[in-house]
């Protein structure tokens, strides 16, 4: 097979059209068999509830090229489960876990020549999505659905890679206390575009959202979860029903405890108590681990470990997680699915 010729080390997090995507339709109460297609355009009714009422959800996961040239997925079952949680929240049909994973595998295999070589730092990002389609006018669930998966080779999401970046606390909320914050639905992201833009214009990588009810606790770091390392070496990450349950964060909690022997706490993280952390980071599939240099809150920049260097614990977490994802470190049972 001919590998496409891209400057792998310089890739950002951008759309690149690859050769094949998977599509499957739900109609009359059931899914069709699904297939790979070459066309990256979709044609849907102008009345589709996905367009007007945001009846859609999506996922993000990656395929990794290992040192011996194999390709593997990282915990795709967790993405399938989360997509089905999102689907239930918006009254959309669930996708059987095997169908979800099979779709991802088919897309990776069909686009294998786009999967970046080992050692370049780049990966193949998969974007499954589920949208309510068909003729409709009133606010109600669609009668038909499209489930699709496409993929693109990607580099780092935040420009710094493993260099620390700064974030600012936003006055906006990304989710309501009993809203859709825990679901991966487009509406949450539409509402984040303006605060994100404000953060960029002010020279920050993104914004930090506080809990929508009291504005006293950290919830999310843009499209990533937050973690901090305390002076006594605990891995701490916020717990809240309006946070997106990050698969990377739950994986890091496991890595911190079982690989690095740290104590782990999932609990409230107060924005007025950042002094409890000696290091902090943003974590997610796209963000991987991005060290947080500082957080601006009420006009003051709170600096953690350093503005220029990654802290030692954050680096260990990064090396272990990425080592597992690229197959250099033995993964816990069931975390890796090889693409054969
Ligand atoms: C809002 C938000 N929080 C957190 C995450 C990180 O989740 P994960 O680690 O599953 O990619 C993402 C990305 O998926 C996200 O969009």
TrEMBL record:
Pfam families (UniProt xref): Aminotran_4 (PF01063)
Keyword Chaperone (UniProt): no
Name of the protein described by the UniProt record: Branched-chain-amino-acid aminotransferase
EC number: 2.6.1.42
Phylogenetic lineage: Bacteria, Bacillati, Bacillota, Clostridia, Eubacteriales
GO biological process: isoleucine biosynthetic process; L-leucine biosynthetic process; L-valine biosynthetic process
NCBIfam families: ilvE_II, PRK13357.1
Family assignment from sequence similarity: Belongs to the class-IV pyridoxal-phosphate-dependent aminotransferase family.
């Amino acid at each position: 097979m001919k590998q496409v010729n891209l400057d792998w080390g310089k890739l950002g997090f951008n759309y690149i059209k690859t050769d094949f995507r998977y599509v499957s339709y739900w109609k009359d109460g059931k899914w069709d068999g699904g297939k790979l297609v070459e066309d990256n355009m979709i044609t849907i009714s102008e009345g589709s509830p996905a367009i007007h009422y945001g009846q859609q959800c999506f996922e993000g996961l990656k395929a990794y090229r290992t040192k011996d040239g194999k390709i593997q997925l990282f915990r795709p079952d967790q993405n399938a489960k989360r997509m089905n949680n999102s689907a239930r929240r918006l009254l959309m049909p669930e996708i059987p876990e095997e169908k979800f994973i099979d779709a991802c595998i088919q897309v990776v295999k069909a686009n294998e020549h786009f999967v970046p070589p080992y050692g370049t730092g780049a990966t193949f990002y998969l974007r499954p999505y589920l949208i309510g389609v068909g003729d409709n006018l009133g606010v109600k669930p669609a009668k038909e659905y499209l489930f699709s998966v496409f993929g693109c080779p990607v580099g780092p999401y935040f420009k710094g890679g493993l260099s620390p970046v700064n974030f600012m606390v936003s006055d906006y909320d990304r989710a309501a206390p009993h809203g859709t914050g825990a679901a991966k639905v487009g509406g949450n992201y539409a509402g984040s575009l303006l605060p994100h833009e404000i953060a960029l214009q002010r020279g920050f990588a993104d914004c930090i959202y506080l809990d929508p009810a009291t504005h006293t606790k950290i919830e999310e770091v843009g499209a990533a979860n937050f973690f901090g390392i305390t002076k006594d070496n605990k891995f701490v990450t916020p717990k809240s029903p309006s946070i997106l349950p990050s698969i990377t964060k739950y994986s890091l909690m496991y890595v911190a405890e079982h690989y690095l022997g740290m104590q782990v706490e999932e609990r409230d993280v107060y924005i007025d108590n950042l002094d409890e952390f000696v290091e902090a980071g943003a974590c997610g599939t796209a963000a991987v681990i991005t060290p947080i240099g500082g957080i601006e809150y009420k006009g003051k920049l709170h600096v953690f470990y350093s503005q220029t260097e990654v802290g030692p614990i954050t680096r260990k977490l990064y090396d272990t997680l990425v080592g597992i994802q690229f197959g250099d470190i033995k993964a816990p049972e069931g975390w890796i699915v090889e693409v054969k």
